[in-house]
Amino acid sequence: MANSFLLKAEPRSDIGKGASRRLRREEKIPAVIYGGDGEAQSITISHFEILKHLNSDSFYSQIIDIDVNGDVTETVLRDLQRHPYKPTVLHADFQRVVRGQEITVNVPLHFLNTESAAGVKAGGIMSQHVINVEIRCRPRLLPEAIEVDVANLGMNEALHLSDLTLPEGVALTAFAEGDAEQADTAVVSIHPPKTSSNEEDTAEVEAESENE
Fold it and tell me: Which fold has domain 4-98?
């Protein structure tokens, strides 16, 4: 497990849309902790507390300790409701983490050597088709990200989910059920740059001239 975050929270008993609007005017947001061995718990978190972590990719995939009046609960972020056009958070859902029990989370992919990849140096264009993957593991083994080294990826080549190097104890949920071959999605590929129709026409004319 790479990172851990801490959020200070307060218990919340006032439920409903009106109460939520009042909280937001006070720069607080309503949230819920659920799952695990306990009942759902309604809480209030400072809007600033949430905002200061949102630029970190790890916040969406790592353990978040929520301190409610000194009682700390380990959680992972399950849902974040944002305002449609304002830079504000409206609501958050957190799921309890039970040590020893596996959890399912999305973690980001970090691509390495993108500018020095063999296919890119040959003039190709890299396309990243997947930016995060769903994994299953025990909380203590939760990685911050999955690294994808593309240094040896050549022109017209691709890396698939099955090519990813996973940390010990971490599994992709994509292969848990069904057709593994169908689930083996391309993660990243390198292809030649597209040529304009004029360039293609010129090439065809030149080829015809050489054959005459």
Answer: Ribosomal Protein L25; Chain P (2.40.240)
The CATH T-level fold of domain 104-191 is RNA Polymerase Alpha Subunit; Chain A, domain 2 (2.170.120)
At residue 34, the pLDDT reads: 94
- The whole-angstrom distance between residue 13's C-alpha and the CA centroid of its chain comes to 32
Q: Where are the domains of the chain?
A: 4-98, 104-191
At 1 the pLDDT is: 46
Q: What's this model's pTM, rounded to 2 decimal places?
A: 0.77
Percent of the chain past pLDDT 70, that is, above it, reads 87
Least Cα distance to 144 among 66, 75, 64, 61 occurs for 61
Owner of token pair 């409701």: 81
